[in-house]
Description:
The chain is mostly helical. The protein folds into two domains: 8-213, Rhomboid-like fold, CATH 1.20.1540.10; 243-288, no CATH class. It contains 13 helices and two strands. Helix 7 crosses helix 8 and helix 8 packs parallel to helix 10 (185-206).
Amino acid sequence: MYDDSFGASLKRGYRGLPVAIRTLITLNVGIYVLQVIAGIFGPDYAKAVINNFAFFPDWQIALFQPWRAFTYMFLHGSAFHLIFNMLWLWWMGRSVEERLGPRTFTVIYFAAGLGGALLYIIAAPILGFNPVIGASGAVYGIMVSFAMLYPKMPIMLILLPPIQARYVVAGLIAIDALLLGSADSTARIVHLAGAGIGYLMIKWHRQGTDLSSWILPVEQLWYRLKGMVQEQSSKPRNKNMYSVSDVEIIDEDEQSELDEILEKISEKGYDGLTDAEKQKLFELSKKN
């Protein structure tokens, strides 16, 4: 009989997550653990984390401390707050990332989170100048993306029959709009702004805008820095030996493989390639 422990199943499921979602969930959970540890040392330490990394809707703070517009998305007020956001990200985000690719997914996620923060600056004089934390605005952008990409996908909610995704997400947005005047108006306005940015991003994507190109400069910088570290740590190469990049001839089989990869890019985009195909494309491009 096949014996599969809960830990092994959890590990396999974690590894099976798309790369962007897996990274975001790992960061959110890891940072929340650090928040809890800071709270164990005393309330002042926990408060210091919020004071330094939460987003404050003051334009001067936003201008001179711009990291807050990013770091606030990784802070959460409670375990329930974290679990709620990560579950929605997992439920709806997986299909979005598999459809659009990790780069476009990441752009939508952070654009929605940034949009939520920036809109709150405008709304703060009415709603109050309160610090905001949580990934909810970014997650709402992904939820709206899912509803636009898979509008009729049935969603199973507790004690309710299957409901199409577009109605579930529209209902959540309607609730936030109705509760704008409540005590937690801060969270509501961030949710609505994130949802609006998600809508705009998918509209631009459908119009042919390559959202993934927005993140390429950051990715290229990362690989450049990574390459510099690897180059410094690597041993000197024998000058009498030839590397693959020294060979400039592509044989017939390699040309056929290159054509297949290029055709796949034309159909699904670069994000649709597997890691092995991306590596092969890189190797062949150096020969060509």
